Amino acid sequence: MSSSRYEQGLAKLQQIDGQAGENVINSLRDIAPDFARYLIEFPFGDIYSRPGLDLRSREIAVVAALTALGNAAPQLKVHIEGALNVGVSRDEVVEVIMQMAVYAGFPAALNGLFAAKEVFAARPAACTP
Asked: Which residues does the UniProt record annotate as the domain Carboxymuconolactone decarboxylase-like (predicted)?
């Protein structure tokens, strides 16, 4: 295992998700610490660190994908926070989620909008870059 891969992933996780990402990792330490490490190394150390897309574009894609899944509200909330952290506006988050109604159906889009509403309510507009 490369410690630089872990360190790079941890730095990227902090940059994108901040405390919300750390909370996910910490919640896994007592049940599946290896899985927590995998979450840091692979998605954040390997994929998010690739040069092909900026973090803003990556988070838009993740919000769309998690919305389309329709069954990943906790992860969607973390990534809506991440999207806001890397410069996606609230209006853009809403538009991305609404777009998913076309491809994933209205129930998935509704679930996504309600997740966004919770995130927005817990995060004052002044905290959004």
From this structure: 33-118
